[in-house]
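Z., the sequence and structure:
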Amino acid sequence: MQTNRATTPGDTATRPEAEGTDRRAADRASRDASIVLGLTLPGDTVLYLLLPLHAASFGVTLAEAGLLLAANRLVRIIGYGWVASFYERSGPRNACLLAVFGAACATAGYAVLPGVWWLLPARLLWGLSFAAMNIATQALATAEVSGASRRSGVSRAIIATGPMLGLLAGAVAAEVAGPRVVFLGLGLLSLVALPFAWRLPGGEGPRLRAAGPRFALPKPLDVWSFVQGLTLDGLFVLGLAFLAAAALPQGAALAAGAALSARYLAEVVLGPPAGRLAEKFGAARLLLLVSLASAAGLAVIGVGWLWVGSLLVVGLRGLLQPLPAPVAAARAAPQERVAVLARLATWRDIGAGIGPLVAGVLLPLVPAVWLYLGAAALLAAASVAALRR
């Protein structure tokens, strides 16, 4: 099939080769950034598992444990814009090298620092380090329009492998050696990410223009991201533990923990197929379908089919995770892409931070059927408003 593009001698031979080289470079950079985050992320996810169960071993109360777990997300809400600006000035390599050192220090700190006021700075350091690595994985996956959804799917699978294995190994190691020692090992594991961070593109990043104030009136996709965090990251996770305790008093922790691990397994298994489907049918269209199906899963939980609905939501999250970044990047001007991705992550963190608070207050007071049906309706409405075209 002929095209209208004018050619020059040698153009037809070099242009496909150049495009192939660009795609391979984008694939490698995205893969390396994903490995960096996958190797450092277990330090955070295992803390969510062990800190509430062994709060006294860390010298904190259960309430202080909740503060420490929330601090990671709260500092990102405040600091994402600053981290995005630093990423743009310094480039992926320098930003991720610093982030790896920060993540390793924070994770090792969980093993040795006594009490909440010593652990809190470690959590804040981890939150800022994660923000830099999270921006890198999304920005590098979407740097080239061609194959962005495919790279995003592979990226999510690589990233999720770390927490999935870390949760299993951390639980076993904590039983053998105690909960705090686990984090010394995870801190050393984080340093394994340094060679992959060094391979990332270096030099100063492009001088990008901010995409407006992050706390101005949110765009429809920002609203969807907030609602996703509120319902699927906040309400679902806390609600699962609450409802599991009522349904299985003797096995609630095991059942809820298995569902949490299954979340990452779903991303490993379903992330790459989601990316390929998005390349074929369009990321926004697929994200709309998966979001509406996730809303249906919340409704299924509400009507009393707890485990059927939970498995449905967990599986759909594996399909959903790679999709928002390509949708946001495709809608943004090139010079606004990193800022738009940071803003999207900020709104998700706000929703995910509010979600457990809402669930903790309402679950004992409001019948689960109304709470989950309301969450399902909210997610469905936000999805249609943001993604219908």
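The domain at 213-389 is CATH 1.20.1250.20 (Growth Hormone; Chain: A;). The chain has two domains: 23-207, 213-389.

Let me know what you think.
H.
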